[in-house]
Amino acid sequence: MRIDHRAAVRQRKHHGLPVTADPFRRRLRSAAVSAAAAAPACRAMRRAPRDTEAVFRRDNKSTGLLPRSALSSPNFYRVPARRHSQECNHWVQEAIIFVKNAWYCAGWDHELSQGKTAVLSRRIAGESVVLYRKLDGAVVALEDRCPHRQAALSLGRKEGDSLRCMYHGMKFGPDGQCNEIPGQTTIPERACVRAFPVVEKDNWIWVWMGDAVKADPALICFSVGPGDAGWNIKTSQVHVKTNYRLEIANLMDLTHIAWVHDATFGGTREYELVRPRMTMRPRGIDSDIWLRNVPVTRFAQHLFPPDMRFDLHFDVQFSVPCNFVLHFKVYVAGTATEGPSDGQLVLDSYSCQAVTPCDADSVQYYYSWGASRATDSPGLSDLLKEAIDAAFLEDKLTLEAQHRNISEKPDFKTIDIVHDAGPGKMLWLLDKMLKEEAAAEKRAIPIAATV
Length: 451
Ligand code: FES
Ligand SMILES: [Fe+2]
What we know:
Number of strands: 20
Radius of gyration: 26 Å
Oligomer: single chain
CATH superfamily of the largest domain: Naphthalene 1,2-dioxygenase Alpha Subunit, Chain A, domain 1
Strand order of the largest sheet: 14-20-19-18-17-16-15
Number of helices: 6
Structural class: alpha+beta
Number of domains: 3
Helix content: 25-40%
Bound molecules: FE2/S2 (inorganic) cluster, fe (ii) ion
């Protein structure tokens, strides 16, 4: 057998196997044999991207927004690398990874009480933020960093509408300006902390992490909160040690329900055939999905006769950075038409989800689920909450392990399959916004400052 040593080495590299600069052919031959064993799989892998490209081209015709380059690059899910800085002796992110001009969820309103010392500490898009309520109940969001010696203000004390740093006692108003330095009469001009725009809407607290002038509340995503009288919505949250790009990819591909959520939301492999109808918006994507004549999801199987079939309708609004609002309806099979339907409705529900990136390696995931008053019954919304809590632990397990693998081999060349189309679109949109913000920031730097 003639051995192509170069091909063998290439294939070993492709599989992440060690390749030594060994001059002896015996070693190379063994490399070639192991590579040859993997060759059929490799050939299949090389064909897969072409199939995926075809799907992308077909889908893109309908949206007309995506260039062909939106097809996943080798670094599709790649988290930009970090380097260790000698100057400041800590890790520095090499690229901008968060859209700053966006509203990020900082939690449910009930988490922030008017308690004497009630202050919340949050990591949002790589920044430390402290939140508290003023006397009139309005929420204040400040950078969680005292300008004196960088003590955490979240360890401080509320005093009326102000927050006092409990290291050396400097006190800051809700606008971030220092209004007292104990033992000192003059207050330096730079004695202030950054104040972030905040809005409370649908029982969520939203913080704008970018240019305050651009903070438009109309950009906050639509949602249905637990305070909405027409719905019985239950809330929850989970911390996941993963990069938020993996969360975006997960939420934009509902086919994973068949596999990751086999024990909870699963029960049918029809999900693997899901091809959403997508509509791209400037800051998000809408998806419309119908699943016809399928069994009920696993967590509710005990509620219906075993052979009963249903039509499922998923109406999803996904918006930057990672907000997912699902209007989910279940009909008795064969009774629902597309569009405004008069089918036999079994469940009408909303699940509103906000995935807030804390930093490159973790997210705080705020979510809810609940039925409309018209289709609710005692205990039903509790069952939905129980199911979504269990399902999101399944996602957590999957995404944390995936994130560990990607961090370990960031240059590993992955393959693409048909289900990457949805995630590809949303990540392309995110990257487009990141590039635009980076370009705008560069333009905003005055020429004198760059000299
Ligand atoms: S660190 Fe806050 S007052 Fe000194
Ligand atoms: Fe999931």
